[in-house]
Amino acid sequence: MIWKKALLHKKSSIFNAIKNLEETAIQIVLVVDSKNNFVGTLTDGDIRNGILKGVKLNSPIEKLMNSKPTIIKKNISDETAFEIMRKHSINHLPHIRNNKIINLYQISTKKSYKEYKNFFVIMAGGKGKRLMPLTKNTPKPLLVYKKKPLIEHILHKIKKSGFSKVYVSVNYLKNKIIKKLKDGSRYDLEIDYLKENQALGTVGCLSQLNGKTKNPILLTNCDVITEMNYIELLNFHIKKKADITVVIKEHQSINPFGQIKIKGRKIFNIIEKPITLSYINAGIYVINPSVLKFIKKNQELDMNSYIARLLSIKKNIVPYPITDKWSDVSDYLKKSK
User: pTM for this one?
Assistant: First the structure.
C-alpha cells in the first residue's frame, strides 16, 4: 500500500515532506507522532501556503499540517468514501481506528476533459551550448530522453492537461524542429512557430504574441520535465491576479567542508558539512498578455531582465513553489554523454 510510505513523524522537516510527496506521488503526507498515532495531514497546497508566508524548509511539518482533517472511523464502501470527499471538496480520506491510520481513500484523479484556450509556449530556440557536442547537429529539443525527443514529453503533457494551441520558439537548427513537429497534428495539437532570425533570449520572441490573446500564456523551457499540474498553476496565477507567475523549486546544497562559526576571536560552533536549502527558478511561467507590450520587437531579452523591468514599474510577480518531481534534463544528458 503506497500510502504507508507517506507516513512522516510530526517533527520531520518540511523539506523531507517535499521529498516524500515526490516519492509517493499521492499528493499527501500522513503525519504521526512517536507512537505512530495519526495527528494530521499535509498537502502540497499546505506547503505552498507556508512557503509563501515565509516558513523555512527546515521547520517541522507540524507547523503547517492540518490537525483536523476530515476522517472516517468506521468501515464504509468506496462509493460512500467518494461521496464524502466530493461533499467536502477533498482528494483524500484517512480511515482511522484506535488513533492509527489503517487505510487511505483517494478520489479518482481522472477528471472530465476540458480544453483550455490558453496559449502554451515552448522555448526551443537556444543553441544548447552546455550540451555540446550533443547539440552540434541536433537541436536540444530533439535530443532523446527516455526513448523519445525531449520536446515530445512536454507536448504529451500539454495535450493531457487540456491545452491545444502550442507555440514553439525556434532559431538554432530550426528547420529540423519544424520538420519533426510540423503542424502538430500527429500530437493532436495545433503547433505554430515563433521564428527568430537572431537569438532573442528567453522572452524576446513573445513580442510576436502581443495582441493575439486575452488569456494568460503558459511558458516552459524545452529541457524541463515535471509532474506538476499545469491547471493548478494557471488557477493560482488567476487567483493571485499576477502579471507573471514564476514556478520555483527547493534546492539542497551540501557544503563539503565543516563550517566554522566565529564571534570575535572565538570559535563558538562547528557545523559538519552544513546543508543549505534555497529555491531555484524551475523554468516554467505564466504571463499575462497585458505585459507583453513591455517586450520590444526583435530585441534580445532574457527572463531575469524582463522580470526586473516589470518589478521596477510595480507589476505583480508571484512565486509558485512546487513539490512535484522536476528535472532539468540538460544536466542529466550532460552527465550521460
Answer: 0.75
112 falls in which pLDDT band (50, 70, 90)? Answer: very low
Backbone angles phi, psi at 217, to 5 degrees: -105, 130
Question: Which residues, 6+ apart, have CB-to-CB distance to 212 below 8 Å?
Answer: 119, 289
If we measure between CA atoms, which residue out of 277, 285, 273 comes closest to residue 319? 285
Q: Half-sphere exposure of 280 toward its Cβ, with a 13 Å CA cutoff?
A: 12
Per-residue confidence (pLDDT) for residue 259, from 0 to 100: 75
Dig out the grid coordinates for 87 from the structure: 461533499
User: One-letter amino acid identity for 126?
Assistant: G
pLDDT at 255 over 80: no
Looking at residue 110, what is its pLDDT? 47
* Nearest Cα to Cα of residue 142 among 199, 224, 222, 196: 222
C-alpha cell at 56: 523555512
- Output the nine-digit C-alpha cell for 118: 490558453
The residues near 61 (Cβ < 8 Å, ≥ 6 apart) are: 8, 10, 11, 12, 13, 14, 16, 17, 29, 31, 42
**For the chain, where are the E strands, in sequence order?**
7-9, 29-32, 38-42, 92-97, 100-106, 120-123, 144-145, 148-149, 165-170, 190-195, 217-221, 224-226, 244-254, 259-263, 266-271, 275-287, 317-322, 326-328
Residues 50-58 have a mean pLDDT of: 89
Q: List, in sequence order, every residue forming a beta bridge with 263; answer none if it has no partner.
A: 266
Cell numbers that stand for 40 in this block: 494530521
How far apart are alpha carbons 326 and 224 in whole angstroms?
Answer: 7
